[in-house]
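User: We ran a pulldown and think these components assemble together. Before we commit to crystallization trials, I'd like a predicted model of the whole complex to look at. Sequences follow.
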Amino acid sequence: MTTPPLPVQTFMQEANEVLESLETRLLELEGDPTNSEIIDAVFRNLHTLKGSGEMFGFTALARFTHSFENAYDAVRSGKAQVSQALIDVSLRSRDHIQRLIDIGTDEAENARLAEAPEGLALLKEIDAILGKASDAPAEASHPVEGEDETEQGPQRFRATFTPDVDSLRTGMRPDLLVEELADLGTATVECFADAVPPLEEIDPAGCYLRWEIAIETDAGRTAIEDIFLFADEDALKLEEAGSALDAVEAPATSIEAKSIGGAASPAPAAPAAAPAQKGNDGGERATAARRSDSVRVQSHRLDALMDQLGELVIAQARLNRIAQELADPNLVGTAEEIERLITGLRDATLSIRMLPIGTVFGKFRRVVRDLSSELGKDVTLVTEGEDTELDKNVIDSLSEPLVHIIRNSVDHGVEPLEARKAAGKPDLATVKMGAFQSGGEVLVTVSDDGGGLKTDRIRARAIERGLIPEDNDLTDKQINQLIFAPGFSTAETLSSVSGRGVGMDAVRTVITDLGGSVEVESTKGVGTDITLRLPLTLAIIEGLLVRVASAPYVLPLASVEECVELTAEQTRRESGRSILTIRDELVPFLDLKMLFGFATDGEATRRIVIVRAEGRRVGLVVDDIIGQHQTVIKSLSPYHRDIDGLAGGTILGDGSVALILDPVALVKSTGTLSAEAA
Amino acid sequence: MTTDSNKTNLPSQGRMTILTFRLMGEIFALAVERVHEIIDPLPVTLVPRTDPFVPGLVNVRGSVVPVADLRQRLEMPPAEATEHSRMVVLDVLIEDTATKVAIVADSVDQVSEVEGSQIEPVPEIGMRFAPRFLAGVAKRDGDLIILLRVETVFEPPQVRNSRAA
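Assistant: Here's a predicted model for the assembly, 843 residues in total across the polymer chains.
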């Protein structure tokens, strides 16, 4: 398939957002089946999908959604009740709609899918659940709130549809709209080409046609207006015609009326009319609200803005340095002011990319719900900190790993019901997802109240796989981290849910690529907590500038816990050892000068930066600590990007290049540290 | 890209524009399309745990650019910078990533044109440099110009010495 034109892409993107909202609403409705606000919201979602789907040529989507929408109309009008069965089939219908969106606008595909058995089966189910309710003519008993258009008997209308010249460019399909209108009743359609300009002025992609449709229908005025909901307001002129039909001379085309949806549709077209108005209003309100508080921007533009800002931060560092050197108070004052402004600009720009993590949390309600019914476990998902904001790129990459973790929690973590009863736990298991900010990081946690990790089995498996030596003396906590090791899985049976042995390893890879880390904490019989630590922003970090030999290096401030001095006497005393005693605490350390292969010149006083890596405190010995530094991360070329312990490069105020260190990778690369320290 | 590399690989037809520079008295050449700029040597930040072929990084107008040591690759002894030394910043593809690379030349000669017919294959005998790094040779005014093969001469080293400690 070729890439769809831009308006269609926009529609697909918006439709996906509507589907997400639909899913959330359906799950809310499951817990609160009589809440009319939620029912209305579901209805509006479906209505928006139908309307814009039709407009952009997603005919199969529009037809399917139409029937689905009728079901919720019946619920709205009190003729049907929200039941577990209805929610079930609605969720599956939502998935079907997702597929209909994914296939795009290809006409043959659409025709095939409109008749596809899974769609028809879903519609039958909806019918069956609604029973007689949807068969009864809706108008007869329909209590219409504040609407004045409960039409009785057929009416004649004369509609003049004059789309804007540019309307084809925005993806409008006048043919579909006219066809849909003709479907409402007995219609005579005429097409006029009198507005077509002379050849030299014609825009080949412009629309110069005008349609006049005389229609006899009992669907009412709103139903007609509703069809043209997404066209320009001026494009449609609609008047009640009475005998105007006679005035039509020589019709150019005539389309026979037929019922929308054909055999697949359980409801006659007519009942759509009255509810359509309410949906119409709601839909417009929602669209208007969205327009006012958000702007759609292509992410590469934001990336370009970020790049420029990065350059600005570097140039500003240079300015600061020059101002310090010249020591002109006016210049220093101005430089400080610019620094303050740039910091504000940086924060504002970064916040553009930020989205609340709640946008992915919604998805997991569904995952937990489906899994718990699949595995026969009663599990509820509790979320907190939905408002915590993360970079959009990070959020996009997070959803897969989180699905994996949640699956593991429900599949392996939560015990079968008998085991829970035996352990005196409530029947309903809880999986908790939370997100909160801590310093320069965002922590995302997934906790369950299940049986905890089986550390003995992890140890046995790790030895079997050769991941650790048999005579290891690792602590339980260290053993538990091995679930993230490549090729590790203890599941005895391979279920479709989890246990493919790539899961947690893949999770760690994604998180590491994002510049974060992942840890597991588990108590036998009480539960398991998995914590993802993610950097708040990717491009600019607060760093600690240090000196090793003669070169400057940057350590991410987020991983630095404290700095201590290492006296010459201590150096002598500790020589040959890799553990320091700091305030009665044993801290393993790495001498960066030795690690990097620089000559050790026995500097008298050196400093230790204590960082947190692999769940423990580790000291990094440096020659000097220069200070805090706002660091713009520049990625390294293929020559250097695979070197362990380097996270990137940056440019300092004096124009020199400094390397950014990754303390976790640095510690890990030495390998032997944990064994020595234990 | 294809036409570019063809030019470097098989410069048998037409004429090509080359930049010539010297290393240990030998004259080397690269297609001028590869050359981004020629600058005075910049201070190099050494990268720990790296391969000696790419010992460091420089700041070229706000970009962090790796420095590749052609002397090391061509098995020449290292040399101190002189007043004639220049950095040549090149645009090359490394592992399918468009990358800037800086090389240090003892001196930069000139930009000139060579006829395709002047370029000969690398002689099998008598050449002290590994043939896989070379695209051909050309004679001019009694001098031998050695054309470098960009695709191989900037290849990342196969074995990474990332665990030096």
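The interface with chain A takes residues 43, 45-51, 53-54, 57-59, 62-66, 68, 94-95, 97, 99-101, 156, 160, 162-165 of chain B (CB under 8 Å). That may be worth checking against your pulldown data before setting up trials.

User: Thanks, that helps.
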